[in-house]
Design goal:
Elements (H helix, E strand, L loop, with lengths): L1 E9 L16 H13 L6 E2 L8 E11 L1 H8 L6 H13 L7 E9 L11 E8 L23 H10 L2 E4 L13 E11 L5 E7 L6 H13 L7 H10 L16 E7 L6 H9 L6
Parallel strand pairs: 3-9
Antiparallel strand pairs: 1-3, 1-4, 2-3, 5-8, 5-9, 6-7, 7-8
Amino acid sequence: MTRFRIDLGYRGTDFHGWAKQPGLRTVQSSLEAGLTRITRAEVATVVAGRTDAGVHARRQVVHIDLPTAGIEKLIGKSSRSAEAALLSRLRGVLTVDGTDDIVIHAVSEVPEDFDARFSALWRTYQYRLADRRSFIDPLLTPVTPRHKGELDVEAMTEAAHEAQGLHDFLPFCKPREGATTIRTLHELDVDRDQEAVITIDLRADAFCHHMVRALVGGLIKVGSGTWPVTRPAELLAEADAGIDSDVPMFVTPAHGLVLTEVGYPEAEFYASRAAQTMARRTQY
C-alpha cells in the first residue's frame, strides 16, 4: 500500500457536510466515488477535520492508501507519476458533471505514518459576519451571514482574548459520547476588514462539534450587549472547575464558516504527533 496526501477545498453550500450519510450528497461520498471510479477499487479517506452541512473549506487535507494494482490502473500506459496521474484524473472525474464545488489543489506521496487527522498540529477557521456597518457585497452574501444591528468589535475582541488557552470548551461544544471537550485555543481574533465585515479567526489543536460556531455566537452576544465581556471566560472557568453552567448555546449559521488551513509537523514527527493526539487530553 502507498499513502497519498490530497489537499483540497470545497464550497459546502450543496453538501450535507463532510461525512458519508445514506442517500445524501456529502464531500466524503463524492470524493470517494471519484477515487473508486479512477482506481476501480473501494478507497477510504481519512480527513483532517470533519465539517458540518453548509461549512466550506479552502484548504482541507485527507489521506488515502492505494494498493499497487490500483496505482497501476490509475497510471495506465502513461509515463506520469502516481501523484500527477491521481491529481489529473481526480480533477477530471470531480468536474465531469459540470460542478466545481470540490477543487483538488495537490496530491503528494507521504510516509505511511502520516495521518491527516492525528498528525495535524492545528486547524484554522474563519467566520465572516456582516452587521449594520458592513458593506454588503452581493457576490459574498452566500458566505456572509448578517446581524441586524451594529456589533461592538472592541468588546468582542476583549472577550475573545480572554477565552484563549487550554480549557474545557463544554459550554461551546456539542459533546460526543466518550470524547473529551478539552482543547487548546491558540488564537481567537476579531477584526473588521476594509469593507467593515467582521472576521473572526480561530486556531486550535482541534475543535469539537459546533465549537467554532458556538464561540462566534457567544462573541455576538457580547458584541450586542446581551452578555458582559467577561461572560465567555466565566463559562470556561466554570467548565474547567467541573461546574455545569447549563447555558444554551447560540450556534451561528454554517454558511459563514470556512476551514482555512491545517498545519503539520516535519515528516520525522508524524508518528509522535499522532500518538500524542490520540492520547486522551487533560488539563493537567
